[in-house]
Design brief:
single chain; Umud Fragment, subunit A; about 160 residues; alpha+beta; eight-stranded antiparallel sheet
């Protein structure tokens, strides 16, 4: 199901978002367009992702997950960890993880992605281990940055 009801910035309207949530709850797969650069370099503005419903217990660190955003749209970020009913995610292109959010906001998991009708490899044999490694490296980078700031050093870059 492709969603095209959007405002001038490309964000989903409240009605389209509600319909998308209902479709995912009914087990349907959705095709959504990426409208931000938070997942660069893997996903870019204009890429399309196919989102399928998934139970939080089936998720693994490194998975690309979709959650309902507080503003009514959706956010695609990489799962870093599951902690006591909360999920911790992070955009690959962002310096810090998102604040933990309740698992009931989980809309689904990205199964396929396309750029200009060409597949972006997400399910290659190396992608899940690479995603887990990236999730771990991003977490170490975040912790290391906090440590260095505590001792008075700044990272540039």
């Amino acid at each position: 199901m492709a969603l095209s009801a959007s405002d001038h910035k490309g964000a989903l309207s409240a009605t389209a978002t509600a319909l998308a949530r209902d479709a995912l709850a009914d087990g349907q797969t959705l095709r959504l367009r990426v409208v931000s650069g938070s997942m660069r370099p893997l996903l870019r503005r204009g890429d399309e992702v196919f989102v399928s419903p998934v139970a939080p217990a089936a998720l693994l660190p490194g998975d690309l997950v979709v959650r309902a955003a507080p503003d009514g749209g959706f956010v695609v970020h990489r799962l870093m960890a599951r902690q006591a009913g909360m999920l911790v995610t992070r955009g690959d292109g962002l310096p810090r993880p998102d604040p933990p959010w309740p698992a009931d906001q989980l809309a689904g998991r990205v199964g396929e992605a396309f750029r200009a009708d060409r597949p972006i490899p997400l399910t290659a044999w190396w992608s899940r281990p690479a995603g887990r490694l990236l999730a771990g490296l991003l977490q170490v980078r975040s912790l290391g940055g906090r440590f260095l700031r505590k001792i008075g050093l700044r990272l540039h870059g």
